[in-house]
Input
Amino acid sequence: MRQIDPTEVMPGEFTWMVRKEVEDRDARVVVIDSLNGYLHAMPEDRILSAQLHELLAYLNNRGVATFIVAAQRGTIGSELGSQVEASYIADVIIMFRLFEHEGKLKKAISVVKKRSGPHEESIRQLRLDSDGVHVGEPLRGLRGVLTGVPTEIGEEDSGRSSSVPR
Output
């Protein structure tokens, strides 16, 4: 784990640092948190995306699993969006969203993109607690979870049909 101030490290130097860590420690996993900070450190640098693409290709060729966090603007609602467009370099994109339900703030997880093969299409509740990470059953009883303010399906017909646990 290494904290880097993107305003103090040039993109080429960052790439060299990551490669050196991977080679010296035989790292199998690299997490870049966040991509926003990396790209906003030098917004005028046009080669930044190319360097990132080259770094990811290198890591992939070494068999390193690379996770990149890209923060979204906003918290809940339709105004959410990423300040960074990096889907073209990602093999898999997993979206985490907050949503409101029954007066509580909850988390949802869904696979937005998977480059090869079929992928899970369900939106599921995500819970984090002292026992770990829990991925729930598909949220079948709700519509609009990704908007942040879902509505229950069929609630006017059957009372309550939500499938969201606690």
Observations:
- The chain has two domains: 1-90, 91-166.
- Residues 1-90 form one domain.
